[in-house]
Amino acid sequence: EVQLVESGGGLVQAGGSLRLSCAASGFTFDDYAIGWFRQAPGKEREGVSCISSSDGVTYYADSVKGRFTISSDNAKNTVYLQMNSLKPEDTAVYYCAATEMGLCTRASYEYEYWGQGTQVTVSS
Prior knowledge:
The structure is a single chain. The protein is an all-beta fold. Helices cover 0% and strands 50% of the residues. It contains no helices and 11 strands. The strands form 2 sheets. Strands 2, 4, 5, 6, 9, 10 and 11 form a 7-stranded mixed sheet that branches. Strands 1-3-8-7 form a 4-stranded antiparallel sheet, with no helix packed on it. The radius of gyration is 13 Å and the shape is globular. The mean pLDDT is 95.
């Protein structure tokens, strides 16, 4: 059974940091790309970042470039999203997702597997 489990969300003040984790199981981790998406109330789901597990190629949305860093520990089948200099507009439910394409894509419909999400709230 494929599972993606996010953790690490919480409440933080503006300027603070959080590290999200996405633990994957039930599929060959190296064959997939793992993406992070977020959705704020009343807004569409937004692609935040992605990493290709096979070659480490990464992608970042313009809104998080320079503040967020995605990394992968293939031995642990886990992807991390280090979020620094957080802003109130980063408040959202963050989801990790896996795509069999193996290459990063911004299109959420390309991702076959999704986690349950973790809430990130940034207070001003």
